[in-house]
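seq:
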Amino acid sequence: MLFPNYQQQNYRYQVVKRGYLHKGKRLHLCNTITFVFMRTTINEPLPDKEECTSSLKNALDALSVINGRWKLALILCLMQSSKRFSEIQHEMTGISSRILAKELKELELNDFIKRHVYPTTPVTIIYEATGYSRSLKGLIGELSAWGGQHREKIRQSMRKQS
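struct:
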């Protein structure tokens, strides 16, 4: 057993610092491997199995709904203003019509966007963000901040390598 007194003394391991090893030092995956410095804290209550399972299910549900290359970008695009299909496609370069239609349908199914059909000739369809999609604003802000930190960390490690 790796930690023999784990259950008896109720240890919890927390990530203190992350770093990268260059290729050739120990095991490597692609060009780098992540290693983690850990700090132990004694006598903090560990979450029970049900709490862990519930938290994991909630996180997986959230990830399955917003998973995909374009979903968060579409939500952000429609949070700015309501748009027609062609306006969305023009604003989001690199997405095909088929993928855009699929992503919009999935977002509509999950109540992140609303589709308004106007009986004109030709038919006008306008997509807009719902109040429910606006609840993701804090999450998107946190993801954006973390992404910026991660990008900067990778840039610094690449500078150190060269």
